[in-house]
Amino acid sequence: MLWMNCFSQAPALTGTSMKHHDRLRITAQPLRPIGRRDVFSSRGQIMRTFVLFCVFCLALMVGGLSSHARAQTVDDARFRAFVNALWPDAQRQGVSRGTFDKAFAGMKPDTSLLKLTKKQAEFVKPIWHYVNNSVSQQRISRGQARAQEFAETLARIEARYGVDRYIVLAVWGMETSYGGFIGKNNVIRSLATLGAAKYRGDFFRNELLIALKILQEGHVEPDGMIGSWAGAMGQTQFMPSSFMKHAVDWDGDRHKNIWTSVPDALASTANYLAQHGWIKGWTWGYEVTLPRGYSLASYDPQDHRPFTQWSSQGLRRADGETMPHTGEAALFLPAGQNGPAFLTTRNFQTIKSYNTSTSYALGIALLSDRLAGAAGLRTPWPVNERTLDAGQSLEMQKHLVRLGYDIGELDGKIGEKVQGALRHYQKQAGLVPDGFASVPLLEQMRSRR
After folding, report:
1. Which residues, other chains included, contact 397 with Cβ-Cβ below 8 Å and sequence gap of 6+?
2. Does domain 10-30+135-176+278-371 fall into CATH 3.40.30.10?
3. Is the pTM of this model over 0.90?
Protein backbone atom coordinates (compact mmCIF):
# COMPACT_ATOMS: atom_id res chain seq x y z
CA MET A 1 0.00 0.00 0.00
CA LEU A 2 1.17 3.50 -0.82
CA TRP A 3 0.36 4.83 2.67
CA MET A 4 3.29 2.90 4.13
CA ASN A 5 5.76 5.11 2.25
CA CYS A 6 4.45 8.27 3.87
CA PHE A 7 6.34 7.45 7.04
CA SER A 8 9.75 7.82 5.38
CA GLN A 9 8.56 9.19 2.36
CA ALA A 10 8.20 4.22 -22.08
CA PRO A 11 7.24 5.18 -25.47
CA ALA A 12 3.99 3.88 -26.92
CA LEU A 13 4.10 0.39 -28.40
CA THR A 14 2.09 1.28 -31.49
CA GLY A 15 4.08 1.82 -34.64
CA THR A 16 7.26 0.11 -33.41
CA SER A 17 8.64 -3.39 -33.41
CA MET A 18 10.74 -2.80 -30.31
CA LYS A 19 10.07 -5.40 -27.65
CA HIS A 20 8.66 -4.39 -24.27
CA HIS A 21 11.68 -5.79 -22.46
CA ASP A 22 14.23 -4.09 -24.70
CA ARG A 23 13.30 -0.45 -24.12
CA LEU A 24 16.31 0.94 -22.29
CA ARG A 25 18.61 3.91 -22.11
CA ILE A 26 21.45 5.18 -19.98
CA THR A 27 20.93 6.88 -16.62
CA ALA A 28 23.11 8.58 -14.04
CA GLN A 29 22.97 9.45 -10.32
CA PRO A 30 24.48 6.55 -8.36
CA LEU A 31 22.44 5.40 -5.40
CA ARG A 32 23.79 5.78 -1.88
CA PRO A 33 25.43 2.53 -0.72
CA ILE A 34 23.93 0.62 2.15
CA GLY A 35 25.40 1.82 5.43
CA ARG A 36 27.12 -0.63 7.71
CA ARG A 37 29.64 -0.75 10.52
CA ASP A 38 32.69 -2.98 10.31
CA VAL A 39 33.24 -5.69 12.88
CA PHE A 40 34.80 -4.06 15.95
CA SER A 41 38.32 -4.65 17.20
CA SER A 42 39.42 -1.64 19.28
CA ARG A 43 38.53 -0.90 22.93
CA GLY A 44 36.55 2.18 21.86
CA GLN A 45 34.64 0.20 19.27
CA ILE A 46 33.87 -2.49 21.84
CA MET A 47 32.46 0.10 24.26
CA ARG A 48 30.44 1.79 21.53
CA THR A 49 29.03 -1.54 20.43
CA PHE A 50 28.15 -2.49 24.02
CA VAL A 51 26.30 0.79 24.53
CA LEU A 52 24.48 0.41 21.20
CA PHE A 53 23.45 -3.13 22.10
CA CYS A 54 22.13 -2.02 25.50
CA VAL A 55 20.10 0.75 23.89
CA PHE A 56 18.54 -1.70 21.45
CA CYS A 57 17.76 -4.18 24.21
CA LEU A 58 16.11 -1.43 26.27
CA ALA A 59 14.03 -0.41 23.25
CA LEU A 60 12.97 -4.01 22.80
CA MET A 61 12.01 -4.32 26.47
CA VAL A 62 9.66 -1.34 26.29
CA GLY A 63 8.01 -2.64 23.18
CA GLY A 64 10.28 -1.63 20.32
CA LEU A 65 8.03 1.25 19.27
CA SER A 66 8.31 4.90 20.23
CA SER A 67 5.35 6.36 22.05
CA HIS A 68 4.17 8.42 19.08
CA ALA A 69 3.64 5.24 17.03
CA ARG A 70 1.30 3.57 19.52
CA ALA A 71 -2.45 3.99 19.25
CA GLN A 72 -4.26 5.32 22.31
CA THR A 73 -7.81 4.35 23.24
CA VAL A 74 -10.58 6.43 21.70
CA ASP A 75 -14.13 6.75 23.06
CA ASP A 76 -16.98 8.88 21.70
CA ALA A 77 -16.12 11.86 23.91
CA ARG A 78 -12.45 11.88 22.93
CA PHE A 79 -13.37 11.45 19.27
CA ARG A 80 -15.80 14.38 19.35
CA ALA A 81 -13.26 16.57 21.16
CA PHE A 82 -10.68 15.71 18.49
CA VAL A 83 -13.09 16.65 15.68
CA ASN A 84 -14.08 19.91 17.37
CA ALA A 85 -10.43 20.86 17.84
CA LEU A 86 -9.76 20.10 14.17
CA TRP A 87 -12.14 22.73 12.83
CA PRO A 88 -9.94 25.84 13.20
CA ASP A 89 -7.11 24.20 11.21
CA ALA A 90 -9.53 22.96 8.58
CA GLN A 91 -11.01 26.43 8.24
CA ARG A 92 -7.56 27.96 7.82
CA GLN A 93 -6.94 25.54 4.94
CA GLY A 94 -10.04 26.67 3.11
CA VAL A 95 -12.55 24.02 4.21
CA SER A 96 -16.05 25.44 4.64
CA ARG A 97 -18.20 24.75 7.68
CA GLY A 98 -20.72 23.02 5.45
CA THR A 99 -18.11 20.61 4.04
CA PHE A 100 -16.73 19.95 7.51
CA ASP A 101 -20.08 19.21 9.11
CA LYS A 102 -21.20 17.02 6.21
CA ALA A 103 -17.99 14.97 6.44
CA PHE A 104 -18.47 14.24 10.16
CA ALA A 105 -22.28 14.07 10.36
CA GLY A 106 -23.32 11.34 12.81
CA MET A 107 -19.82 9.88 12.84
CA LYS A 108 -18.44 7.76 15.66
CA PRO A 109 -14.93 6.33 15.95
CA ASP A 110 -14.13 2.99 14.38
CA THR A 111 -12.40 1.39 17.35
CA SER A 112 -11.81 -1.85 15.42
CA LEU A 113 -8.94 -0.06 13.65
CA LEU A 114 -6.97 0.21 16.87
CA LYS A 115 -6.56 -3.56 16.97
CA LEU A 116 -5.11 -3.47 13.47
CA THR A 117 -2.41 -1.02 14.56
CA LYS A 118 -1.14 -3.63 17.03
CA LYS A 119 -1.36 -6.61 14.72
CA GLN A 120 1.99 -8.26 14.04
CA ALA A 121 2.75 -11.15 11.73
CA GLU A 122 3.69 -14.36 13.50
CA PHE A 123 5.59 -15.69 10.52
CA VAL A 124 7.72 -14.14 7.80
CA LYS A 125 6.84 -15.63 4.43
CA PRO A 126 9.77 -16.12 2.03
CA ILE A 127 9.83 -13.87 -1.01
CA TRP A 128 8.71 -16.61 -3.41
CA HIS A 129 5.40 -16.98 -1.55
CA TYR A 130 4.68 -13.29 -2.08
CA VAL A 131 5.82 -13.24 -5.69
CA ASN A 132 3.94 -16.40 -6.67
CA ASN A 133 0.75 -15.00 -5.16
CA SER A 134 1.33 -11.68 -6.92
CA VAL A 135 1.90 -13.27 -10.31
CA SER A 136 -0.96 -15.74 -10.17
CA GLN A 137 -2.57 -17.00 -13.37
CA GLN A 138 -5.86 -15.41 -12.35
CA ARG A 139 -4.23 -12.01 -11.95
CA ILE A 140 -2.40 -12.39 -15.26
CA SER A 141 -5.56 -13.37 -17.15
CA ARG A 142 -7.66 -10.60 -15.64
CA GLY A 143 -4.93 -8.06 -16.28
CA GLN A 144 -4.58 -9.02 -19.92
CA ALA A 145 -8.33 -8.66 -20.33
CA ARG A 146 -8.23 -5.21 -18.73
CA ALA A 147 -5.28 -4.29 -20.97
CA GLN A 148 -7.44 -4.96 -24.04
CA GLU A 149 -10.43 -3.17 -22.53
CA PHE A 150 -8.43 0.00 -21.88
CA ALA A 151 -5.85 -0.35 -24.65
CA GLU A 152 -6.40 3.11 -26.13
CA THR A 153 -6.38 4.82 -22.74
CA LEU A 154 -3.23 3.01 -21.68
CA ALA A 155 -1.46 3.90 -24.93
CA ARG A 156 -2.28 7.59 -24.49
CA ILE A 157 -1.22 7.57 -20.84
CA GLU A 158 2.06 5.86 -21.73
CA ALA A 159 2.72 8.44 -24.43
CA ARG A 160 1.94 11.30 -22.03
CA TYR A 161 3.90 10.18 -18.97
CA GLY A 162 6.49 7.82 -20.44
CA VAL A 163 5.71 5.05 -17.95
CA ASP A 164 5.42 1.51 -19.27
CA ARG A 165 1.71 0.65 -19.55
CA TYR A 166 2.28 -2.84 -18.18
CA ILE A 167 3.88 -1.44 -15.02
CA VAL A 168 0.82 0.79 -14.56
CA LEU A 169 -1.43 -2.22 -15.10
CA ALA A 170 0.56 -4.30 -12.64
CA VAL A 171 0.30 -1.64 -9.92
CA TRP A 172 -3.45 -1.44 -10.53
CA GLY A 173 -3.70 -5.21 -10.30
CA MET A 174 -1.63 -5.48 -7.12
CA GLU A 175 -3.25 -2.60 -5.28
CA THR A 176 -6.94 -3.25 -5.91
CA SER A 177 -7.25 -6.26 -8.23
CA TYR A 178 -7.77 -3.94 -11.22
CA GLY A 179 -10.33 -1.89 -9.32
CA GLY A 180 -12.16 -4.94 -8.04
CA PHE A 181 -11.65 -4.10 -4.37
CA ILE A 182 -10.69 -0.61 -3.22
CA GLY A 183 -11.41 -1.18 0.46
CA LYS A 184 -14.57 -0.77 2.49
CA ASN A 185 -13.69 1.91 5.01
CA ASN A 186 -14.90 5.51 5.06
CA VAL A 187 -11.60 7.36 4.75
CA ILE A 188 -12.66 10.34 6.86
CA ARG A 189 -13.75 8.05 9.69
CA SER A 190 -10.56 5.98 9.51
CA LEU A 191 -8.26 8.99 9.48
CA ALA A 192 -10.19 10.70 12.26
CA THR A 193 -10.09 7.59 14.46
CA LEU A 194 -6.35 7.10 13.95
CA GLY A 195 -5.75 10.82 14.39
CA ALA A 196 -7.73 10.92 17.64
CA ALA A 197 -5.74 7.90 18.84
CA LYS A 198 -2.52 9.77 17.98
CA TYR A 199 -1.29 6.73 16.11
CA ARG A 200 1.92 7.77 14.36
CA GLY A 201 1.74 11.13 16.07
CA ASP A 202 0.09 13.81 13.92
CA PHE A 203 0.48 11.92 10.65
CA PHE A 204 -3.15 10.85 10.32
CA ARG A 205 -4.46 14.19 11.60
CA ASN A 206 -2.55 15.95 8.82
CA GLU A 207 -3.81 13.44 6.25
CA LEU A 208 -7.35 14.07 7.50
CA LEU A 209 -7.02 17.81 6.91
CA ILE A 210 -5.91 17.12 3.34
CA ALA A 211 -8.81 14.68 2.86
CA LEU A 212 -11.20 17.46 3.89
CA LYS A 213 -9.62 19.72 1.25
CA ILE A 214 -10.25 17.01 -1.35
CA LEU A 215 -13.92 17.03 -0.33
CA GLN A 216 -13.96 20.82 -0.45
CA GLU A 217 -12.65 20.76 -4.03
CA GLY A 218 -15.53 18.50 -4.99
CA HIS A 219 -13.57 15.52 -6.32
CA VAL A 220 -15.67 13.03 -4.36
CA GLU A 221 -18.55 12.98 -1.87
CA PRO A 222 -17.85 11.90 1.74
CA ASP A 223 -19.67 8.59 1.37
CA GLY A 224 -17.73 7.88 -1.83
CA MET A 225 -14.31 8.47 -0.25
CA ILE A 226 -13.63 4.77 0.35
CA GLY A 227 -10.35 3.08 1.06
CA SER A 228 -8.29 0.89 3.37
CA TRP A 229 -8.39 0.92 7.16
CA ALA A 230 -5.37 3.26 7.16
CA GLY A 231 -6.83 5.76 4.70
CA ALA A 232 -5.29 4.62 1.40
CA MET A 233 -7.91 5.63 -1.14
CA GLY A 234 -9.49 4.35 -4.31
CA GLN A 235 -8.11 2.24 -7.14
CA THR A 236 -4.63 3.75 -6.72
CA GLN A 237 -4.56 3.42 -2.90
CA PHE A 238 -3.24 6.96 -2.58
CA MET A 239 -3.07 8.64 0.79
CA PRO A 240 -4.69 12.09 0.67
CA SER A 241 -1.29 13.82 0.48
CA SER A 242 -0.32 11.68 -2.53
CA PHE A 243 -3.69 12.42 -4.11
CA MET A 244 -3.09 16.17 -3.88
CA LYS A 245 0.34 15.82 -5.49
CA HIS A 246 -0.28 13.19 -8.16
CA ALA A 247 -3.98 12.59 -8.89
CA VAL A 248 -5.05 13.42 -12.46
CA ASP A 249 -8.35 14.30 -14.12
CA TRP A 250 -7.72 12.25 -17.26
CA ASP A 251 -11.31 11.90 -18.45
CA GLY A 252 -11.88 15.66 -18.38
CA ASP A 253 -14.92 15.80 -16.10
CA ARG A 254 -13.15 18.29 -13.76
CA HIS A 255 -12.91 15.72 -10.96
CA LYS A 256 -9.83 13.73 -9.99
CA ASN A 257 -11.75 10.55 -9.41
CA ILE A 258 -9.53 7.63 -8.43
CA TRP A 259 -12.51 5.76 -7.01
CA THR A 260 -14.79 5.09 -9.98
CA SER A 261 -12.92 6.49 -13.02
CA VAL A 262 -10.46 3.94 -14.41
CA PRO A 263 -8.80 6.49 -16.74
CA ASP A 264 -8.22 8.87 -13.82
CA ALA A 265 -6.82 6.04 -11.69
CA LEU A 266 -4.45 4.77 -14.39
CA ALA A 267 -3.20 8.24 -15.29
CA SER A 268 -2.71 9.10 -11.61
CA THR A 269 -0.57 6.00 -11.12
CA ALA A 270 1.52 6.84 -14.18
CA ASN A 271 1.90 10.43 -13.02
CA TYR A 272 3.04 9.25 -9.59
CA LEU A 273 5.73 6.99 -11.04
CA ALA A 274 6.85 9.64 -13.53
CA GLN A 275 7.23 12.21 -10.77
CA HIS A 276 9.18 9.71 -8.70
CA GLY A 277 11.83 9.24 -11.35
CA TRP A 278 10.59 6.71 -13.91
CA ILE A 279 12.91 6.96 -16.90
CA LYS A 280 11.11 6.81 -20.23
CA GLY A 281 12.31 4.01 -22.47
CA TRP A 282 13.74 1.88 -19.67
CA THR A 283 12.68 -1.54 -18.59
CA TRP A 284 12.67 -2.46 -14.88
CA GLY A 285 15.26 -5.18 -15.54
CA TYR A 286 15.77 -8.81 -16.59
CA GLU A 287 16.15 -12.25 -15.13
CA VAL A 288 19.72 -13.39 -15.81
CA THR A 289 21.91 -16.44 -15.40
CA LEU A 290 25.30 -16.33 -13.73
CA PRO A 291 28.30 -18.23 -15.09
CA ARG A 292 29.47 -21.28 -13.17
CA GLY A 293 31.77 -20.27 -10.32
CA TYR A 294 30.77 -16.60 -10.47
CA SER A 295 32.19 -14.73 -7.46
CA LEU A 296 29.83 -12.71 -5.28
CA ALA A 297 32.67 -11.11 -3.34
CA SER A 298 31.65 -7.63 -4.53
CA TYR A 299 27.89 -8.28 -4.68
CA ASP A 300 25.86 -5.20 -3.77
CA PRO A 301 22.30 -4.71 -5.14
CA GLN A 302 22.90 -0.95 -5.09
CA ASP A 303 25.94 -1.18 -7.38
CA HIS A 304 24.84 -0.19 -10.88
CA ARG A 305 27.21 -1.08 -13.70
CA PRO A 306 26.94 -0.96 -17.50
CA PHE A 307 25.16 -3.91 -19.09
CA THR A 308 28.25 -4.40 -21.21
CA GLN A 309 30.31 -4.99 -18.06
CA TRP A 310 27.86 -7.61 -16.80
CA SER A 311 28.01 -9.29 -20.20
CA SER A 312 31.80 -9.32 -20.13
CA GLN A 313 31.60 -11.14 -16.77
CA GLY A 314 29.52 -13.90 -18.32
CA LEU A 315 26.01 -12.92 -17.24
CA ARG A 316 23.31 -13.70 -19.80
CA ARG A 317 19.62 -12.93 -20.08
CA ALA A 318 17.61 -15.94 -18.99
CA ASP A 319 15.21 -15.59 -21.93
CA GLY A 320 18.08 -16.00 -24.41
CA GLU A 321 17.76 -12.49 -25.81
CA THR A 322 20.78 -10.23 -26.30
CA MET A 323 21.85 -8.09 -23.37
CA PRO A 324 21.51 -4.34 -24.03
CA HIS A 325 24.59 -2.58 -25.35
CA THR A 326 23.75 0.63 -23.47
CA GLY A 327 22.45 1.41 -20.01
CA GLU A 328 23.28 0.04 -16.60
CA ALA A 329 21.81 -2.15 -13.91
CA ALA A 330 22.56 -3.79 -10.56
CA LEU A 331 22.72 -7.46 -9.72
CA PHE A 332 19.87 -8.55 -7.42
CA LEU A 333 19.62 -11.94 -5.69
CA PRO A 334 16.36 -11.82 -3.70
CA ALA A 335 16.65 -15.46 -2.55
CA GLY A 336 20.42 -15.67 -2.36
CA GLN A 337 22.85 -17.62 -4.52
CA ASN A 338 20.47 -20.55 -5.04
CA GLY A 339 17.52 -18.57 -6.41
CA PRO A 340 16.73 -16.49 -9.49
CA ALA A 341 19.11 -13.65 -10.34
CA PHE A 342 18.12 -10.30 -11.84
CA LEU A 343 19.72 -7.21 -13.29
CA THR A 344 17.56 -4.28 -12.16
CA THR A 345 17.64 -0.75 -13.51
CA ARG A 346 16.83 2.39 -11.56
CA ASN A 347 13.21 2.06 -12.60
CA PHE A 348 13.03 -0.83 -10.15
CA GLN A 349 13.80 1.68 -7.41
CA THR A 350 11.02 3.89 -8.74
CA ILE A 351 8.55 1.04 -8.30
CA LYS A 352 9.71 0.86 -4.69
CA SER A 353 8.64 4.48 -4.21
CA TYR A 354 5.07 3.20 -4.45
CA ASN A 355 5.73 0.61 -1.76
CA THR A 356 9.15 0.24 -0.14
CA SER A 357 8.89 -3.56 0.03
CA THR A 358 11.38 -5.31 -2.25
CA SER A 359 8.94 -8.22 -2.56
CA TYR A 360 6.24 -5.82 -3.74
CA ALA A 361 8.52 -4.22 -6.33
CA LEU A 362 9.60 -7.60 -7.70
CA GLY A 363 5.98 -8.74 -7.79
CA ILE A 364 5.05 -5.66 -9.84
CA ALA A 365 8.03 -6.15 -12.16
CA LEU A 366 7.37 -9.82 -12.87
CA LEU A 367 3.62 -9.31 -13.19
CA SER A 368 4.21 -6.55 -15.74
CA ASP A 369 6.34 -8.94 -17.81
CA ARG A 370 3.63 -11.60 -17.77
CA LEU A 371 0.96 -9.06 -18.72
CA ALA A 372 3.13 -8.10 -21.68
CA GLY A 373 3.24 -11.73 -22.81
CA ALA A 374 6.61 -12.85 -21.46
CA ALA A 375 7.18 -16.30 -20.00
CA GLY A 376 7.67 -16.96 -16.30
CA LEU A 377 10.94 -17.32 -14.44
CA ARG A 378 13.48 -19.78 -15.84
CA THR A 379 15.27 -20.38 -12.53
CA PRO A 380 13.15 -21.96 -9.79
CA TRP A 381 12.89 -20.52 -6.32
CA PRO A 382 14.82 -22.40 -3.60
CA VAL A 383 11.63 -23.58 -1.91
CA ASN A 384 13.48 -26.10 0.25
CA GLU A 385 15.55 -23.42 1.96
CA ARG A 386 14.96 -23.15 5.71
CA THR A 387 13.77 -19.58 6.05
CA LEU A 388 13.33 -17.50 9.20
CA ASP A 389 10.16 -16.83 11.13
CA ALA A 390 9.58 -13.48 12.85
CA GLY A 391 11.29 -14.48 16.09
CA GLN A 392 14.34 -15.81 14.29
CA SER A 393 14.54 -12.66 12.17
CA LEU A 394 14.65 -10.58 15.34
CA GLU A 395 17.28 -12.89 16.80
CA MET A 396 19.41 -12.45 13.67
CA GLN A 397 19.17 -8.68 14.03
CA LYS A 398 20.27 -8.92 17.65
CA HIS A 399 23.29 -11.01 16.67
CA LEU A 400 24.27 -8.38 14.12
CA VAL A 401 24.00 -5.65 16.75
CA ARG A 402 26.08 -7.76 19.14
CA LEU A 403 28.74 -8.05 16.44
CA GLY A 404 28.85 -4.29 15.97
CA TYR A 405 26.62 -3.66 12.95
CA ASP A 406 24.28 -0.70 12.66
CA ILE A 407 21.09 -2.27 11.29
CA GLY A 408 18.63 0.50 12.15
CA GLU A 409 15.47 -0.32 14.08
CA LEU A 410 15.38 -3.62 15.94
CA ASP A 411 12.07 -4.71 14.43
CA GLY A 412 12.50 -8.27 13.14
CA LYS A 413 12.39 -7.15 9.50
CA ILE A 414 15.12 -8.19 7.09
CA GLY A 415 15.41 -5.04 5.01
CA GLU A 416 18.16 -3.62 2.84
CA LYS A 417 20.25 -2.36 5.76
CA VAL A 418 20.17 -5.75 7.48
CA GLN A 419 21.00 -7.52 4.22
CA GLY A 420 23.97 -5.22 3.76
CA ALA A 421 25.20 -6.11 7.23
CA LEU A 422 24.66 -9.81 6.50
CA ARG A 423 26.76 -9.60 3.35
CA HIS A 424 29.58 -8.01 5.28
CA TYR A 425 29.27 -10.60 8.04
CA GLN A 426 29.26 -13.47 5.55
CA LYS A 427 32.37 -12.11 3.89
CA GLN A 428 34.15 -11.84 7.24
CA ALA A 429 33.08 -15.40 8.11
CA GLY A 430 34.29 -16.85 4.81
CA LEU A 431 30.77 -17.51 3.52
CA VAL A 432 29.21 -16.60 0.17
CA PRO A 433 28.12 -12.97 0.74
CA ASP A 434 24.67 -13.10 -0.84
CA GLY A 435 22.87 -11.42 2.09
CA PHE A 436 20.17 -14.08 2.24
CA ALA A 437 18.75 -14.55 5.74
CA SER A 438 18.28 -18.26 6.39
CA VAL A 439 18.15 -20.66 9.33
CA PRO A 440 21.60 -22.15 8.52
CA LEU A 441 23.09 -18.65 8.55
CA LEU A 442 21.42 -17.91 11.89
CA GLU A 443 22.78 -21.15 13.32
CA GLN A 444 26.25 -20.17 12.13
CA MET A 445 25.88 -16.78 13.84
CA ARG A 446 24.80 -18.45 17.09
CA SER A 447 28.04 -20.42 17.08
CA ARG A 448 30.18 -17.27 16.80
CA ARG A 449 29.84 -16.06 20.36
Report:
1. 407, 410, 411, 412, 418
2. no
3. no
